[in-house]
Write a structure and sequence with these properties.
By secondary structure, the protein is an alpha/beta fold. It is 30% helix and 19% strand. It has 6 helices and 8 strands, in the order βββαβααβαββαβα. Strand 5, helix 4 and strand 6 form a beta-alpha-beta unit. Its main location: cytoplasm.
Length: 248
């Protein structure tokens, strides 16, 4: 199947140049066949599954997001959805991206998700589960919103499921966050998504485009680079927390 990213010189410009120097407040655990980063507030029955971008579950930026969610009262878990396979690296050749992606489809994670949900319910006493994902994980979040009635809320950050017939039939309330100047996701795709959701979707949803922003803005350490972006980054992160709080 022709992927909409295939013609891009850089099919996923999650610019890693501003990677956060960050250790993380949580711990790494083994859950059946996958590893995961988990961070817990003192007491919570609510959990968020944080889904990585192409740079993998150990990216400090993503762990920073998990810690931020935990500071807002949620158990946050960031599993290795590549299941030990090597994540993408800034040094890789973009011409090999499609090949790299072949065995790491964001719509092929049900086995791992089921393991994580079981762990949260049985080991952590969780009663309410939400999902937040970035880039690759944004696609995965959209996919899970189509599959799992038990997920109370989802926030898909710069990601769209493009190839499924049922992609507008959300089962759980989902906030879609996009960047206006995203090289991967043209605005006409975002407009189409919103139009079709309005026609077909019975669950609550919101599609929000942030002006002048580029792919990766929400979970990148851009505060140090461009002060003009800072209000948008903070607004998007606040929207994420508010959406989860509203439905969970």
């Amino acid at each position: 199947m022709q992927n909409a990213m295939a013609n891009e010189a850089k099919p996923c410009p999650c610019d890693i140049g501003d990677k956060i120097e960050y250790g993380g407040l949580g711990e790494e655990v083994q859950i059946e066949h996958i590893k995961a980063y988990v961070v817990k507030p003192p007491a919570s029955e609510k959990a968020i599954v944080v889904i990585q971008d192409i740079y993998g579950w150990q990216l400090p930026n993503t762990r920073y997001m998990a810690d931020m969610l935990s500071a807002n009262g949620y158990i946050a878990i960031c599993p290795d959805f590549f299941v030990g396979k090597e994540p993408w690296s800034p040094s890789h050749d973009w011409s090999t991206f499609q090949q790299w992606l072949e065995d790491k489809k964001p719509t092929d994670i049900k086995k791992e998700v089921d393991v994580v949900l079981k762990y949260l319910k049985e080991q952590c006493g969780v009663k309410h589960i939400g999902v937040v994902g970035f880039c690759w994980g944004g696609v995965a979040t959209h996919y899970l919103a189509l599959q799992y009635q038990e997920i109370k809320a989802g926030v898909s950050v710069y990601g769209i499921v493009r190839e499924r017939e049922d992609r507008f039939d959300l089962k759980s309330p989902t906030l879609f966050i996009f960047a206006e100047n995203d090289a991967v996701i043209p605005l006409d795709q975002v407009t189409t998504l919103e139009t079709r959701l309005k026609e077909k979707c019975t669950a609550d949803f919101q599609v929000k485009i942030f002006p002048n922003q580029t792919h990766g803005f929400v979970h990148r350490k851009r505060e140090d680079i461009n002060p003009d972006d800072k209000p948008y980054i903070e607004e998007a992160r606040t929207d994420m927390i508010n959406w989860l709080n509203k439905y969970m």
